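--- STAGE predict ---
source: upstream dedup step, 1 unique chain passed
mode: sequence only
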Amino acid sequence: MFGLIKRDFKSKYLNSALGSLWSILNPLAIILVYTLIFSQIMGARLPGDNNTLAYSIYLCAGLLPWQLFSEMLSRLQNIFLEQGSLLKKVSFPRSALPIYTSISASINFSIIFLLYIIFLIAIGKFPGAVFIHVFPLLLFQQVFALGLGIIIGTLNVFFRDIGHILGVILQFWSWLTPLVYARSIIPEKFQVFINWNIMVPLVEGYHNIFLYNKAPDYISILPLCLVSILLLFFSYIVFKKLDKEMVDEL
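--- STAGE serialize ---
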């Protein structure tokens, strides 16, 4: 897996003038664009808080983990297709492919997230000891993304439309998650869509840590934890059941 991760970074940045800096610049550009458009041009503010800085903290706290989640699913959907030649020629534990993808995406995330932490420290808004709660949230998120991604990646070998559908779903999913807006501004009749979104409690957990300096509501995150464990177990069963057929299909 270490060899795969090393090759992944080399192939991504080898012929690039800026090299690994792109792993920082791409997500940073997204954050800057959202912040500029919503807070400066559209004058977006958090309810009850006219501070532009508070909205920027809110935006980064939700969008950065979401970018990790989105990258995980996007890469896992094609992992077996991209590594088809490796699967057909080399005998190795095929479950290593999704795991290495998860680790590689986590390394990319850690770089930009470290910059976010430095930014919070510089402006005096680092949450302090409550920051430790970020790690269980990231663990829950990664388990959920890994389980969902393995199922999608396995089925995408047999039904290629799944890869196209996922991009559309992620677009709707992101806008149904309070990443660039506060949940409180959603009209009551549409709150049902937010309530059924399993990622909302997780994102709100990040907001609680970085914006309000308090621990997440783990009771609300419990359904995601249970679903993540069951999904990971189910995805492994599906993967092992279709393992040989998948190689034949490739």
